[in-house]
């Protein structure tokens, strides 16, 4: 059974940093691209970042480019999202999802950026 | 960016009746590999999104066959043949052809 468990969310001040983790199990992690998607409170979905399998190519939404860094540790079957220079508009539930097109999703972790 | 426009944004449906959601893209979603990466997601209240349909018309494992997807290039439709109470939630189309991937605004399905 595929499981994705996010952690690392919380309250952070504007300009601060946070690192999210997504522990994966139930599939061969190294064979799949992995994705972060976020959802601001009461709003729709926004694709944030993707990291490919193999060469680990990365892609970012313009809204987070230069501030967020996606990475993966295949030995630990874990996906990460390092978020720097956080802004109020980054407040959202952050989901990790399997694959380029999100066939499985975790339950999400809430990030709140506020002073 | 490929802009995804869904309609309607609110969909009241009587139990047992059919429902249909339209999704239009500002760009063709036909990829160079011959596939069209248009997906549909369901988000029940308080739950993460769940993918229902991938590449226009392929149902994910465990998705009831009352859900179906169709369309091509820029115009796509999600149909529910007979709405059940468990179908309440928000439905999103999403394109995975052009980076950045983009979602529609969401269609809220409720029981009339």
Could you please describe the fold and organization of this structure?
- The complex is a heterodimer of chains A (115) and B (112).
- With 115 residues, chain A is an all-beta fold.
- Chain A has strands at residues 3-7, 10-12, 18-25, 34-39, 45-51, 58-60, 68-73, 78-83, 92-98, 104-105, 109-113.
- In chain A, the strands form 2 sheets. In chain A, strands 2, 4, 5, 6, 9, 10 and 11 form a 7-stranded mixed sheet that branches. A 4-stranded antiparallel sheet of chain A has the order 1-3-8-7, with no helix packed on it.
- The radius of gyration of chain A is 13 Å and the shape is globular.
- The relative contact order of chain A is 0.32.
- By secondary structure, chain B is mainly β.
- Helix content of chain B is 0%, strand content 48%.
- Chain B has strands at residues 4-7, 10-13, 19-25, 38-43, 50-54, 58-59, 67-72, 75-80, 89-95, 102-103, 107-111.
- In chain B, strands 2, 4, 5, 6, 9, 10 and 11 form a 7-stranded mixed sheet that branches. Chain B has a 4-stranded antiparallel sheet with strand order 1-3-8-7, with no helix packed on it.
- Chain B is globular, with a radius of gyration of 13 Å.
- Chain B starts with a strand and ends with a strand.
- The mean pLDDT of chain B is 97.
- Chains A and B meet through strand 5 and strand 10 of A and strand 4, strand 5 and strand 10 of B.
Which key terms come to mind for this protein?
heterodimer; A: 115 residues; mainly beta; seven-stranded mixed β-sheet; four-stranded antiparallel β-sheet; 0% helix; B: 112 residues
> What's the SSE pattern of chain A?
EEEEEEEEEEE
For the largest interface in this structure, which chains are involved and how many residues does each contribute? A-B, 20 and 21 residues
SSE pattern of chain B, N- to C-terminal: EEEEEEEEEEE
Q: What form of chain B results from the Cα inertia axes?
A: globular
Beta-strand percent range of chain B: over 45%
Mean pLDDT of chain A: 97
Class from helix and strand fractions of chain B:
mainly beta
Rg of chain A (CA only): 13 Å
Structure class of chain A? mainly beta
Parts with pLDDT < 50 across at least 5 consecutive residues of chain A:
none
Estimate the helix proportion of chain A, in percent: under 10%
Count the beta strands of chain B: 11
Q: What is the oligomer described by this structure? A: heterodimer
Beta-sheet strand percentage of chain A? over 45%
């Amino acid at each position: 059974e595929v499981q994705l468990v996010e952690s690392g969310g919380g309250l952070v001040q504007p300009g601060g940093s946070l690192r999210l983790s997504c522990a994966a199990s139930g599939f061969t992690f190294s064979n799949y691209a992995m994705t972060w998607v976020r959802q601001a409170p009461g709003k729709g979905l926004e694709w944030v970042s993707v990291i490919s399998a193999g060469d680990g190519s990365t892609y970012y939404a313009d809204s987070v480019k230069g501030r967020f860094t996606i990475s993966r540790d295949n030995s630990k079957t874990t996906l990460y999202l390092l978020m720097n220079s956080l802004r109020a508009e980054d407040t959202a539930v952050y989901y990790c999802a399997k694959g380029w097109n999100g066939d499985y999703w975790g339950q999400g972790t809430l990030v709140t950026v506020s002073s | 960016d490929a802009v995804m426009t869904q309609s309607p944004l609110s969909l009241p449906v009587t139990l047992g009746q059919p429902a249909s959601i339209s999704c239009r893209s500002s760009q063709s979603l036909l990829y160079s590999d011959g596939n069209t990466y248009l997906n549909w997601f369901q988000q029940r209240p308080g739950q993460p999104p769940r993918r229902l349909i991938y590449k226009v018309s392929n149902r994910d494992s465990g998705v009831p066959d009352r859900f179906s997807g169709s369309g091509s290039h820029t115009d796509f439709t999600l149909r529910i043949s007979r709405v059940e109470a468990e179908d309440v939630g928000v439905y999103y189309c999403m394109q995975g052809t052009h980076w950045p991937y983009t979602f529609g605004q969401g269609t809220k399905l409720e029981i009339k």
